[in-house]
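Figure caption, in words: inputs first, then the predicted bound structure.
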Amino acid sequence: GRFGEYGGRYAPESLVEACREVDEAFRDAWADPGFRGALARLLAVHAGRPTPLTPADRLSEALGVRLCLKREDLTHTGSHKINNVLGQALLATRMGRRRLIAETGAGQHGVATATAAALLGLEATVFMGERDIERQALNVFRMRMLGAEVVPVTAGSRTLKDATSEAMRHWVGATGDSHYCIGSVVGPDPYPWMVREFQRIIGDEARAQCAAELRTGVPDYVVACVGGGSNAAGTFAGFADTRALLVGVEAEGGAGASRGRLGVMHGCRSLFLQDDDGQITQAHSIAAGLDYPGVGPEHAHLRDLGRARYVTVSDEEAAAAAVRLARTEGIVPALESAHALAWVIRAAGDGELPAGSTVLMTLSGRGDKDVSTLKELL
Ligand SMILES: C[C@@H](c1c[nH]c2ccccc12)[C@H](N)C(=O)O
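Bound structure ((betaS)-beta-methyl-L-tryptophan present):
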């Protein structure tokens, strides 16, 4: 398939048919200048694109590299997720669906889905683990404020993994009037490819901005954090045909690409954290948005091809990186994005990143949501 031995459509029969419809509709839409134009307009007037490429001059000076930040934290709702949900909401409308179904753990994708649904006049039903509802009360309030129905999930670990399973189970009975709006480059085909295509606006914009900003036109390194992997997949897509070295940075406690093993979950064959009996184990990270115990099939494939490297950083390194960016550049990053910066700081320090290297790093989200977590660490 598209991603070598990974990917596929390992879903119940009724979902296979629903996924085939999504695949057909997306191919048709993605080839239609009318759809592309409508999406570009939404991304401009509602999401605030293009996002800046910010040279981090003071931090670059301290690290001895040339670091530029792709500012997805400056989009509406504060992360790259809006790129995906606007695309899927527009596609759902084109398919004549009147409701979006979504899963969320940290709540970010839930808020983004609720935002897109409100904007396009669709209903939104978001499945969220009961444990996460307690931990992410602010995002639950936001979703309800935006008119979404938040459905508590009490199965299993009551977190993102189970919320995703529950959302897909619900879709089985609602394929006629609902579109499943997944939050990352995971799930049954065509989702990993479709979500990467919606997120490639990050990489395509950054490619043009680097051509103008960097003497060499293409950065030596392209770095992004990886939970399910959607902001990284979108960023990498803009540089796949260049000699830029691609680095995906995972949380030590949620390292699907770095420590996962071949398995099938949520309709997709990829790398997942699992015990010797094949039971998927729980991800642990200071960053709620890296809470997925696996990684998208495209990243598994890029790892096997040697086209991208996947590394992990600790909670402590990520928290320290967040504080350092705040105090040297005046930007408070999402803890998820701080994982990418933590690797840049480590690698610049131990020489893995040669002095003078040019580095493009996607700042996938803003850190307002993480202030209480960071407060305990300061
Ligand atoms: C990253 C995002 C997310 C939402 N749905 C996902 C599915 C697989 C992997 C990640 C996600 C986040 N965990 C959230 O709950 O919003």
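The chain is about 45% helix and 15% strand.
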